[in-house]
Amino acid sequence: MKSKTNRFGIFYLSLFFVILYLPILSVVLYSFNASPSTAKWTGFTLDWYRQLFRDRVIGEAFAISIQVAILTAIFSAVLGTAAAMVSLMVTTKMKQTIQRMMLLPLLVPEVALGVSLLIFFNALKLPFGHLTLVLSHSLFCVPYVYIMVLLRLQEIDRSIIESARDLGATKWQAFYTIILPLIMPSIVTSSLLAIAMSLDDVVISTYMSGPTSTTLPVHIFSMMRVGVTPKVNALCTLILVGTFFIIGLNQYISKISKNRGLSK
Amino acid sequence: MKGNKILIALLIVIAVGALIYVNINRSEGQEAINLMTWGGDFIPREIIDQFTEETGIKVNYKEVTSNEDMQSLLEANPDQYDLAVVTDYMVDILRQNGLLENLDKSKLPNIKNINPVYQGNYYDENNEYSIPYAISTSFLLVNPEAVAALGAQPITSYKDLWQSELKNSIVLIDWSVEIIGLVLKSLGYEYNETDPVKVSEAKERLFALKDNIVRFETNTPEDSLVNGEAVVGFMYSNQAVKGQAANNKLQPVFPEEGYPIYIDCWIMSKEAPNKDNAYQFLNFIMQPEIAAKIADITKFTTPNKAAEPYLPEDYRNNPMLNLPDEVAANTSFYIGVENVLEEYEHIYSEFKLR
Amino acid sequence: MKTLKRNVLAIPFLIWFGLLVGIPLVYVVVLSFMSRDHLGNVVFRFTLENYQKVFDPIYLRVFANSFLLALLTGFITLLIGYPVAYITSQLEPKKRNLAIALFMLPFWISSLLRTYGWVILLGNTGLINNVLLALKIIDKPIPMMYKFSTTLIGTVYMLIPFMIVAIYNSVDKLDRSLLEASYDLGASKVKTFFKIVLPLTIPGIAGGFTLVFTPALGLYFISDLLGGGQTIFLGNLINTLVNRGRNRPLAAAFSVGMILLVTLVISIYGRITKDKGEGLFQ
Question: C111 near C158, Cβ under 8 Å?
């Protein structure tokens, strides 16, 4: 496919990315700052990285956060997609009801959600930990998946599905071979957003984690009283490098496999 | 639509199954205590590791961001937490709500190390429920050179903050009770005044301060003095210590009108699951050497009198950390915040919207 | 009978949301009519006092302040994000995926740190001022921190991915043959955009706006860090009331006010975009 993007478009996109990454780069830069505060640059050091590797708490918190984020993303993707599918099958009125309900978690203040879920899950005798974290995080992640997937589902030409059915495809086949590929980009992008939101939640996580599970954002925010050290910057730098590495690897592999495909 | 339903149901089952699996997989059985308080090095990890090494008791440290979070968590699950560190006023609330264990002093021989000056306060008159852990005060941190450069008089009291030369040069903790408290003190009144005449006088005075404030900041006010955007700051002692470490031109000023004190205390849940281990832990951290180490790492004032010989020189010579008893006498608590908060918060909102 | 059968499918979702969101919501509403004792504990005694306090002129200005911030955040993210989403959707698939990955990535980093990132950039001794000073473009640091606009930069930065993803999803699925047809008929790119692309992506814009406007009303630490606490927003007020004032009933009343405000805004632009049951939030 030929790219239709003109030079101005590329320029705009590049500018956007530069501004997007400027604050991130300053975070990276200050992970090498000798002073523990962001007020002043006092010299280069690798000390924070050394401290980071010695710190098992931050590592544990990060591990818990990642597990919760991925589980939340999977759970929300399934639930959100299912809800979007269902809302196209039910009556218009019911669809509107579902839509309104989906918006509610974004409206209720986080503290209220946190406190009332704490009381509620407590009454259900659920153990506080991964389960409660994922359940509560998916509350505010499902709506995003739902909205993104529904936006796309609504535009699918029903005649394609009908003709597939006419050709003898089962409903399951029609879903798997036609609908799913069409909505997949939405599911993927909204799952990435869900990971981002889960990785960033402080208020609800404070209430939803048990005595043994502190998540990374809670760890970072709870440090504010005694001061957030550049150790956290160092960790974020490593996360960033790691993710870039995975993206790069992905590009590289697809390039190689494409080349192989051509040479055959 | 049958296929879809089955698929959806199946995926939900898988997702839920995975969750439950992860949860069950977390095994517990070792001797442990569960404590909660602010994170970072509020209770230094090396101290916790040392405790675990000596006793074999694992410490689960739940990090939270505020006293009120701790209250909510403790009220919801009093049987999940053994210990917490909360600020003075919260001890009072938790105690009155019946959540606290009356501490058995016979299991805490090291309590003799605690300075009586910091005991028997309003929140626990008879020392039944709490053990002081970390003390902080708030006062002014000043850059005298920069103040002089602006042509302002040297700052010795709160009153000096109103000098017009200090326009856009003051950083303050962002908390209505504290800032209105500062204004009340500058007028010669006490904290948490309820007399409408005095409060409205303070309100006028507060509004006159607005132009001088460059920033309200609770967590890192010292940064504003370090990077030079402010020349005076009203902040907590541990922040002032950090500010001075970053720029030795910064000097503390203990306002003659008096200033506030906060005592963060250990408390035990009435329904604590591991009381014996918790007593062991409390006793452990009250050892003089350990208390001194904690004080040096956290930069809070230690209430542990016996720890003094073990404190490093620079800590002992630092008036911000080593409070002489007569200085401690000039401090006061914010008592009865709940009586004034709504009114103060309203005044503060109006002040900020100006 | 048939409609009933169709709606059976929706029951699991209604239960899920009814339980996990409905209960908190009811809790907030009930709480807003309750009183508190001298310790800040909630007491089950009905009162309208909390709402009287919410309708105080000073607090109404706090509402207005937050509303302005959220509205501006919505419009700015739209203005910046729309072209980004549109251009991205025009890229060839592989580059497109890379671009999406690249603009998602920053948001995997703690929002607190990202906000500190702006502090490092914009401060008086920050990177931008230092670079400008070194290049002798300015001789005195430009004060950029602690303004309303600084807070706005922070909220836009924090929420723009939601706008981009929502718009991208609706731009991306545009039927390309429509655009080709428009070009074939001699319409310019600009005309095609305004006559065809824009109207078709209204649902995406509305969705994105909701996803940005709503959280923007409740954010608090951005205005603390970047705005220097110089003004007061709903998020700060609710947070202070809960976390320092132990006045949950009053905080709940403010929350109910906030929820009503969002509902109002959504219903207004639901009318404007003339959704007839097909769009998202009417």
Answer: yes
| Entry pTM | 0.89
CB spacing of C230 vs B215 below 8 angstroms:
yes
Closest CA–CA distance from residue B226 to any residue of chain C (Å):
10
Q: Would you say B296 and B311 are in contact if contact means Cβ atoms under 8 Å apart?
A: yes
| pLDDT single digits (tens) B4-30 | 445 455 545 555 655 554 454 444 567
**C contact chains, 3+ CB pairs < 8 A:** A, B
Adjacent-strand bridge partners of B251: B142
Query: What is the count of structural domains for chain A?
Result: 1
Confidence grade of residue C30 (pLDDT, cut at 50, 70, 90): very high
Q: A151-205: per-residue pLDDT in tens?
A: 888 877 778 878 888 888 887 788 888 888 888 888 888 888 898 889 989 889 9
B263 phi/psi in degrees, rounded to 5: -120, 115
C-alpha to C-alpha distances, B59 to B34, B35, B86, nearest whole angstrom: 6, 7, 18
CATH number at residue C50: 1.10.3720.10
Greatest mean pLDDT among A155-159, B90-94, C102-106, C219-223: B90-94
Rounded CA-CA distance B342/B332 in Å is 21
For residue A56, how far is the Cα from the chain centroid? Answer: 24
* Res C2: pLDDT: 60
Mean model confidence pLDDT for chain A? 85
Give me chain B's average pLDDT, please: 90
Question: What is the Cα–Cα distance from B121 to B136, expressed in whole angstroms?
Answer: 15
Nearest CB partner across the interface for B349, out of C9, C58, C247: C58
Give the separation between CA A251 and CA B13, rounded to whole angstroms: 34
- DSSP of B153-193: PPP-SGGGGG-GGGTT-EEE-S-HHHHHHHHHHHTT--TT-
Token representation of residue B221: 């006010």
Residues of B in contact with C9 (CB under 8 A): 1, 5
Residue A37 counted as domain residue: no
Q: In whole angstroms, give the CA distance from residue A115 to residue B77.
A: 12
Nearest CA in chain A to B66: A222
- The C-alpha atoms of residue A58 and residue A55 are separated, in whole angstroms, by 6
Check CB contact under 8 Å for A212 and B12: no
C-alpha R_g of chain B: 24
A147-166 residues touching C, CB cutoff 8 A: 147-148, 150-152, 154-155
ipTM metric = 0.86
Element (DSSP H or E) covering residue B67: helix B67-76
Size of interface A-C (CB pairs under 8 A): 253
Domain that residue C237 falls in: 32-89+143-272
| Topology (CATH level 3) of domain B137-260+335-353 | D-Maltodextrin-Binding Protein; domain 2 (3.40.190)
Instruction: Name the residue type at position A84.
Output: A
Question: Containing H/E element for A252?
Answer: helix A230-263
> C234-243 and B67-76 are packed helices; what angle lies between their axes, rounded to 10 degrees?
60
- pLDDT attached to residue B27: 46
Q: Do the bridges between strand B232-236 and strand B32-37 make them parallel or antiparallel, or are there none, so unpaired?
A: unpaired
CA distance B10 to chain C (A): 14
Indicate the SS3 state at residue B123.
Answer: coil
Q: Domain holding A101: CATH number?
A: 1.10.3720.10
Q: What tokens does A248 get?
A: 């790069």
Q: pLDDT for A20-72, tens place per residue?
A: 999 999 999 999 999 888 778 888 999 999 989 888 888 888 888 888 998 99
**Per-domain boundaries in chain B:** 32-135+263-332, 137-260+335-353
Instruction: Indicate the CATH number of B32-135+263-332 among 3.20.20.10, 3.40.50.2300, 3.40.190.10, 1.10.1740.10.
Output: 3.40.190.10
Residues 6+ apart with CB under 8 A from C270: C206, C279, C281, C282
